[in-house]
Amino acid sequence: MLMPILTGLLLGTLCMALHTIGTSWWLRYSAGRIAQKRNQGLHFHQVLVLMASGITFLTMLHVSEILLWALGYAWLAEVPQLGDAEETVYFSFITFTTVGFGDVVIDKFWRLMAGIQALNGIMLLGWSTAVLMAMAQKIWQSSQRDGGTFSG
Q1: Helix, strand, coil content of the chain in percent (nearest 5)
Q2: Is the separation of the CB atoms in 54 and 30 below 8 Å?
Q3: Hey, is 151 helix, strand or coil?
Q4: Is residue 66 within 8 Å of 96, Cβ to Cβ?
Q5: Could you write out the DSSP letters of every residue in 71-134?
Q6: Tens digit of each residue's pLDDT (9 = 90 or more) over 28-57
Q7: What is the pTM of this model?
């Protein structure tokens, strides 16, 4: 029972570190882009591009974390029910996002690790939502300083 918990905590910690680095970089980058555009007025299409690129970046960050968990299932845990790479990545996706279809079930020994992954996924997805809201607030504050509207 200790091995799945320790493995899950290790992978969760690595994902948290990756997310910290990624979101810190993205927030600095987006704040810099907003500050650059403040003098010229922030155009609506620039807001769309910035928010869409933020969503894309965060999605890629989550996919990286899901792949890290999949590697953990394949290399550290060697879960016998996960037959190939596609099934392992699929199981990692549905566990991280807490969808849990139940069409792929792992043995009792490794279930605690999957529970830790689901908890990690909930926290990281919530964190990403907060990052997007921080971006939106920064854009809103910038537009208020510039007269309250985005230019067309």
Answers
A1: 80, 0, 20
A2: yes
A3: strand
A4: yes
A5: HIIIIII--TT--SHHHHHHHHHHHHTT---SSS---GGGHHHHHHHHHHHHHHHHHHHHHHHH
A6: 998 888 888 766 777 888 888 999 999 999
A7: 0.89
